[in-house]
Specification:
This protein has about 725 residues and is α+β, with helices and mostly antiparallel strands. It contains 20 helices and 29 strands.
Amino acid sequence: MRETGAYGGFVYLLDPGERVLRLALVSGLPIDIFMPWIRVGLEAPLPLTEAIIRRRAVWVGVGEMANRYPQVGMVLPYPFASAYAPITLGETADGSGEGEGGGEGGDGGDGDLGSDAGVLGLLWPGTHPAGHTPVEHEGLRDGAARLGRLLRGIAAAGRPLRGGERPRVLLRRPPTRLGHEEALAAAWLTERLPEGHCAVELDGRISYANAAAAELTGIPPEELPGCRLWEKLSWLSDPVFEDRFRRALLSRRPTSFTALRPPDRWLRFHHHPDAYGVSLRIAPAPATSTEWATPEDRSARAMPGGRAAPVRVGALYHLMQLAAVLTEAVGVNDVVDLVAGQIMPSLDAQGLLIFVAEGGRLRVVGHRGYRPESMERFDGTPMDSPSSPAARVLSEGEPAFYGSPDELEPSFSGLPALTGKEAWAVLPLIASGRTVGCCVVAYDRPHPFSPDERAVMTSLAGLIAQALERARLYDAKHHLARRLQAGLLPRALPEVPGLDVAARYLPATRGVEIGGDFYDLIRLGGDTTADTAVAAAIGDVQGHNVKAAALMGQVRTAVHATAGAPPGEVLGRANRLLTDLDPGLFTSCLYVDLDLTARRARLATAGHLPPLLRHPDGRVTALPVIPGPLLGIDRGAEYPAMEIPLLPGAVLVLYTDGLVEQHGRDLDECMAELAQHVGETEARGSMDELADALLRRARRSDAFNDDIALLLLSPR
């Protein structure tokens, strides 16, 4: 921190045997700030997990967090800059390897975390300029390297590489430059000031307050040290006031707010943060003047005094983070994975059970941390069963918390031994007044549930219920849509003597929509094994909905019905059919007529991307087929054909745009990269291996956002 000018820093260590990072050390900020992320699953979309998964430094500038990592930005909506570097147990721990913003330089590691130990993070104030300086870059890299060497030595000594149950806090102490007499004089100076002055620690607790602060707040002088004002005073209990303190800590900028001390005394609170804490100044404020007030101040002034907030702002932010996680859930498996991978670590829980109510019984749709044999006991439990806490909770509609086996055993004998857990939160999942299911969060050790924790878990159950209800609806619609699309695509490609074939379809959308990409392989002239004429088609209908899928089926049927005619005529007939139907959607199509005996192919295209040809010697070229108009636009359009030799060992690659197009990049450049990849793939490999390699490349792209249809043809 000293080397880079950072005001705060932290270290996460990777739990042995788990894909979880645990906060081990923090300085410059209170632990409360990190509560939603004390334990973090590696699947969480956070900058620190990206750093360790990709094995490179991640830099997040002022104002970038909300856009790049909205889960963090929602919980900490303050201006600050940060950086994260992986700590490895190898010979070096280099945090370099990317450009500004953390998005350059490929995907880094391959997901093998065997040599990874954790993550180093640093924080800078909201006044930090754009970019990072060489000093900051070198300091982050060297700091991660030094920590790696330190942890390597600890591992060599046989000691575990993990933090304690609570993170260690390193406090900066102000330099001692005042003698006793000078310190006494300084204290007397503040005592004579008419305004209140308080020295506040990073966790919000007052370490010193003058007499004016006691008089203005109404707190006896002996009770001020050690207290947090927003916990001590009901008229400061609104979360907006604690939020001002957090903003000062994270941004390292002064903040202020105005509050009404009942019945009619307005006070102005000013926070001035530094490396050692916050200096708080309290002064009377005019009751009518708002010329200095922010919109938040004015709303605060309008609030009645004496109201106590039921939940602290830390708990509210924690709940916001959990809500942000669940917005990413699509199917039921997503809900289970997100709750298990991200919410469980933040609650420091070791067990999870999610039931859905179905046909009067509780069906297990997901679990973590439980023995598989115990699932047989729980799955299918009647909803009126007296031996199930989940069934009781659903019948009563209220959550139940059991902090130890002694609390659960009297009502549900034998259940603690069966589950192997020692504390349980049993939460009913109720959405729109209807019982959706039940969620059980469990702990390996006794766990007292605080009022704030119970409030957060109860609210969380409502979020899970809504996410689960949406997910079940999605799964039903998604299953129906995919069955429709699968019915329109060929169930199996025909076997053609002398021709190796591979086909793939990869949907990209996560919603209910289905795509309009299609492919087909058609034997011509009969079904005898001597037939060597075959036709292939690939196309893409605009849109991702049922209408696009239905039109795709019509185009495929039209091409199939006229296959065997010259390629230009096949596309011309399909075009006239679509023009008469007037579907209002654009459709591209590429048609290929192959004669395996003559070793040639004839091609025509209706606005489709040019196919690639890998020659037997490994060269790859894009075929310059003269494109005709898209289908369904001009009834009289013509589609010129070209003929090419197709020698044994050559590979014809037909694909839709999802395989190559990347937002913001030139299409020719993307196609050149695809051609290079086709050429570099092992020429002696099978068509299936080549198809899988091309899809793996597409999946790794950050711009993968469209369906992919792929058809490979290679004469033997």
